[in-house]
Specification:
single chain; alpha/beta; Uracil-DNA Glycosylase, subunit E
Length: 237
Amino acid sequence: MRRDPNAVETLASLEARVIACERCPELRAYCAEVARVKRRAYRGQDYWGRPVPAFGDPAARVLLVGLAPGAHGSNRTGRMFTGDASGVWLYRALFRAGFANQADQRNRDDGLVLEDALITAALRCAPPGNKPEPAQLERCFPYLRAEVEALGDLRVVVGLGAIGTRAAAAALSAAGYDPVARTPFAHGAESRYERAGRPRATLIASYHPSRQNTNTGVLTEPMLDAIFTRARSLLTG
């Protein structure tokens, strides 16, 4: 797939800005403290402890928007949806749908590569209790908007969870996409957006692959697979 040099440069610049971000001092202090204390199972590991940038293909036509890094997941590994149970579910589904070269995800050096997909989040720092505050989401929002703007061939946006889906919809609108069909949040619900000079974008809502959902059967692997099968069909159809 052809790489847009401008998108590559823009996303690289965004990555540097995200990592250096200090917009939420309370979150920076919390993440640093988690990285200092560590969880016993990871006591011998170096924690990332900083804001987590987007991960994936700079030429992606599919954008995934999650909630926030996990305190001992992405805040530890420094890569979106890596190092916790949510990532296990997500990357297995992406692999089965052909968006990832492998299902395994452990750390930034495990060889995982995404094809035609970019993963980001509504909030880039791990929030206490995994519950971001509205003001924190608002401060982080410009990064998400800039990522949507940078992906010039964006076709599909997958919102992981209600917060991720709301943030994705807001970012599309802020980046100049007009909603032509909106659907309330539900697993598999689709909304369509249009912007002059760009392909139509479809926002697909999904339940978040959190333990709370996967352990209770609210989200099953076939349900998650269906989201990315649909994303693939929108690219090819």
